[in-house]
Structure formats: C-alpha cells, structure tokens
Amino acid sequence: MSPSAIALWHALMSIDNKARWPRDFSVAISTLRSKTGIGKDAIYTARNQLKQKGRIAYRERKGNQSTLYHIISFASGLQTQTPTQTPTQVPTQTPTQTPNNNKPNQTKPNQTNNDDVDDGAFARDETGKLLTPGILFTECFQQTPSTIEIKHCSQLLKMNDPDLVEFAFERAAEIGQKNLAYVRGILNRLHNRGIKDMGDMADYDMSHERGRA
C-alpha cells in the first residue's frame, strides 16, 4: 500500500468508528483532505488502490451528495475458502458479515454508556473508548481541568453532539486557544451555520468546496 492509501484507510476507519460503524457512510472530499493531509487527486488514486485491494467499496453519487464508502472487514476475507475469489464477490458477502464482525466492538460501548457509566461520559476516542469530560479536556488541552471546567465540559457534551464537541476541542487546541470559552465560540459558530453534527459538517465542507472549485 502507498502511504496515501494507508492514510486514507485510517481516516475512513476513524470516520466510520465515530459514526458507530454503519454499513455505508458518506464523506466529503474536503473532510478526507483535512484528515489525511493529501490532495484531491491523491485521494482519488488512494481510494482506487484500496478498492482494488479489497479493503473498501465506494459509490459516487450525483448532484450535491457526498461519495458513499463501505469498509470491508479483514475477517470477511478469512471466512471464504476460495483463495481465487474475485474482488467483486467480496463486497456482495460483506453486508451480511460486517455487522457481525463489528458487533462485539459496537455493542459493548453502547451497553456501557446506557448501564454502567454515569452521565459524565459522552464522547469517544479514535478506538471507540468512552471519554469522560475530564479526559477529553486533558487529552486535547494537555492540562488538568478544574472541577468547574469539568462541570462546564460536561454541560457542553450534554447540550451538543459529542463528536462535534470533540472536534471543537481539537480545533481550539490546534490554534493554541486551550480554553472552554473558545470551544463554546466554535460550537456557536457551527450552530449558526446549521451544523449540529459531523454529518452536517461534511455536507457544509462539500458545499463550500464546490463553491471554491
């Protein structure tokens, strides 16, 4: 695999994980460029390589709609007994296999969130592990939060989409504004643009990318 293909695969896995592993998910090119740091043409080349290697399937859509992606589980290739099976056969088996392959990783966090974790746990990291407000603050800002900061962080997570809050924390950290006031400002600006979750963010990025083209 080329470095670009590896970077794209990790970006798609991260997005699919944040979306709780749906069978298919849409992503704007601008979002992939932001997550991978590679250009549009390199992304097209990388995703074709991933498709040829049987790691993803994708379908471009007409109009303003983002491309649909589907992650092909490594386990789906191990379950077949025919080594010479063509790549076109792998995706046709994936829809029935993928939910079962991902179910152990998906069910455990959901059950934990509902039954065993208090109201202070909302967001998840890249591996799907639950993040408390204090851990989210510490990992993004590299600081130990005060009791008041943990309380305010918890309020932000209750009032907003957790993934969008995590994005706001990461954005604030990137530009050196490691404080909750700046995080609130980012969230307010996103809401004013009609962005309530990361799906809205992808659509917004895509529409503005077309405007710049």
Explain this structure.
The protein is mainly alpha-helical. Helix 6 runs parallel beside helix 8 and helix 8 crosses helix 9 (180-192). The chain has 10 helices and 5 strands, in the order αβααββααββααααα. The chain folds into 2 domains: 3-105, Orthogonal Bundle (Arc Repressor Mutant, subunit A), CATH 1.10.10.10; 117-212, no CATH class. The model is unreliable at 79-99, 102-121 and 125-130 (pLDDT under 50). The radius of gyration is 19 Å and the shape is elongated. The chain has a 3-stranded antiparallel sheet. Strands 4-5 form a two-stranded antiparallel ribbon. 63% of the residues lie in helices and 8% in strands. A hairpin with a 5-residue loop joins strand 4 (123-124) and strand 5 (130-131).
Could you give a short description of this structure?
By secondary structure, the chain is mainly α. It is built from ten helices and five strands.
Question: What's the structural blueprint in terms of helices and strands?
Answer:
Elements: H1 3-18, E1 25-27, H2 29-36, H3 40-52, E2 56-59, E3 67-71, H4 74-79, H5 89-116, E4 123-124, E5 130-131, H6 133-141, H7 147-159, H8 162-174, H9 180-192, H10 198-212
Antiparallel strand pairs: 1-3, 2-3, 4-5
